[in-house]
Amino acid sequence: MGAQAHTFNKQIQSECSILRELDHPCIIRVYDVYDTPDAVYIILELVEGGELFDRIVANGQFDETTSKFLFRQMCLGVKYLHDHSITHRDLKPENVLLTSPDTNETLIKITDFGLSRFINETTLMKTFCGTPNYLAPEVLSTHGEASYTNKVDIWSLGVILYICL
Q1: 5-34 burial by CB neighbour count: b if 16+ within 10 A, else e?
Q2: DSSP for 50-62?
Q3: CATH number, position 96
Q4: What is the count of structural domains for the chain?
Q5: Is residue 122 part of a domain?
Q6: For 152, which of 49, 81, 85, 121 is 20 to 30 Å away at the CA?
Q7: Residue 27 lies in a domain
Q8: Whole domain around residue 81: which residue ranges?
Q9: Contacting residues for 41 by C-beta, under 8 A, at least 6 apart
Q10: Is 62 in contact with 70 (CB distance < 8 Å)?
């Protein structure tokens, strides 16, 4: 296995170890992981409503009631993550899945934990990572030297809410 494949496999294993620890209605569920010499197979919960990003692109902005309905679920999911010492670090509409085509009755599922980290209350992160348009100012200014906390996820939630409205 080459160095790049090894790094990718290590990242997948990290994501799977985080996902296996999670059990919340607003977080994608991992049922099983199969690691073969050729590939890693991750068996996830089936979510049929698509990405929040695609819904916004197709339908435009949401009204306040719908935005609040979706945002509350995202907040509950992120609170659960933070209560379990996990920082997502890449929250964006593309990483929020919807369980139903009906936006007013759908549940959201936070997904893509590839950049997530287990941290404790005293841990500070320094890695510059995430999607630029959703990054908190403290991540943008780190340059690998300064540090930030799990509050970066709260900033990203605010950006998502702004986009929804």
Answers
A1: eeeeeeebebbbebbeebebebbbbbeebe
A2: -BHHHHHHHH-SP
A3: 1.10.510.10
A4: 1
A5: yes
A6: 49
A7: no
A8: 47-164
A9: 33, 34, 35
A10: yes
90 catalytic? Reply is yes
- Does the model's pTM come out above 0.85? no
Single-letter amino acid, residue 154:
I
Whether 77 maps to a domain, the answer reads yes
* Residue type at 113 in one-letter notation: F
Q: What is the pLDDT of residues 69-106, one digit of tens each?
A: 999 999 999 999 989 888 888 899 999 999 999 888 89
- Residue 24 belongs to some domain of the structure: no
Quote the pLDDT of residue 139: 56
Catalytic, out of 90, 102, 112, 153:
90
Q: Which of residues 18 and 109 earns the better pLDDT score?
A: 109
> Exposure of 62 by Cβ count < 10 A (0-12 exposed, 13-18 middle, 19+ buried)?
buried
